[in-house]
Structures are given as C-alpha cells and as structure tokens.
Design goal:
The chain is about 85% helix and about 0% strand. It contains two helices and no strands. Helix 1 runs antiparallel to helix 2. The chain is elongated, with a radius of gyration of 14 Å. It starts with a helix and ends in a 5-residue tail after the last helix.
Length: about 60
C-alpha cells in the first residue's frame, strides 16, 4: 500500500511542479519556475521511494 500512496503523491507533485514551472517560464517569474522544478524533483524522489517500497514488499 505504501508504494501506491508514494506513486500517487509523486504523480501529483510532478504534475503540479510542471504547471508551476510552465507558468513561471511564461510570466518570467524565476521564483515560481524554481518552485516548479523543486516540486518535480520531490515527485521524482517520491516515485523512487515508492519503487523501493514495492521491491521490498512495503517492509520499509
């Protein structure tokens, strides 16, 4: 179950980050663009954590 939760959170953070990054680029808002990149990176980390949990059978 932990794997699924992490994967869902990852997808949400990646999507929200992509939107923030796109809006930041379109409006020349460097702060928003950086926030988007950071949120996408967080989503990637959550995705990796979910994969590890899946490989270990949610034992972590």
């Amino acid at each position: 179950m932990g794997e699924t939760v992490d994967k869902l959170k990852a997808a949400g953070n990646k999507a929200a980050g992509a939107v923030k990054e796109s809006i930041g680029k379109a409006t020349d808002n460097e702060r928003l663009e950086a926030e988007g990149k950071a949120q996408k990176a967080k989503g990637t980390a959550q995705d990796v954590a979910g994969s590890v949990k899946g490989a270990l059978g949610d034992k972590i």
